[in-house]
Amino acid sequence: MLVVPSKLKKKAFIIPTVVVTKNNEARLDGAAVFDYKNQLAGFLNSDETSGLNYITGKAKGGYISASIDHDQFAFDLQRAKSSIKADVTDKNHIHFTVSIDASGIVAESLQTIDFTDPAQMAKVEKAVGKQIKRLTGEAIKKLQDDLNTDALGLGDYLQRNHYDLWQSIKSNWDRGENYFAKSTITVKTHVNVKSSGTVIESKFK
Q1: Of 140, 147, 151, nearest to 42 (Cα)?
Q2: Rg, the chain, Cα only
């Protein structure tokens, strides 16, 4: 089920999609993507939507499933923020770098994690960062390759920070020449495990 806002924007945007379970309970599951014409371009699944939210700085917590040496654990995300920089030397190959800082606790693990061991903690942080990169990568691929629609807000970034360039390409950003699809988007992550939380026996199979 889609709930389309009454006042449409003149640029790409997303709205959450709602599904009804067998128990007649409504829950959010993925998102619908609308292009600059306010026409439905397609849908993002739940993982792709999570990836988009990390890039846009709208991630509001939740659990990330990751693994160390094939042992799974659940990371309880408590804070995430993102920042964007761009190399606009060549408008045909704009290079965006998205930096994502995330912090949280390990909520559930197959084995007790030694939070006093820097090497083990580095593995936890690397594993979580890898998962965030996977999620963001799926969102980027879907939007650039399949939907050709900038729901990431990168055009807004260019308008704020590279105004003259934006004026020259805005009519061909995610349409026409589609400089958005031609852009390279690199995601860098920094994960901080704040504390151990309550690590219990995992339910993962």
Answers
A1: 147
A2: 19
pLDDT of residue 204: 39
From 82, 20, 90, select the one nearest 57 (Cα to Cα). 82
Helices (H), 142-177: 154-161, 163-169
> d(Cα 78, Cα 37) in Å, to the nearest integer?
36
Q: How far apart are the first and last CA of the chain?
A: 32
What pLDDT was estimated at residue 110?
Answer: 60
Does the domain at 45-201 match CATH 3.30.300.210? Answer given as yes
Q: Return the ∠ at Cα 101 (arms to 96 and 106), rounded to 5°.
A: 140
Q: Is 177 exposed, middle or buried (0-12, 13-18, 19+ CB in 10 A)?
A: middle
Amino acid at site 36: Y
Over the chain (205 residues), what is each successive 10-residue block's mean pLDDT? 51 86 73 94 96 94 87 90 97 97 86 76 93 98 97 97 97 96 97 67 41
Q: How far apart (Å, rounded) are the C-alpha atoms in residues 48 and 7?
A: 25
Residue 82: count of CB within 10 angstroms of its CB: 19
Domain boundaries, the chain: 45-201
Indicate the DSSP class of residue 161. H
H and E: helices and strands count for the chain: 5, 8
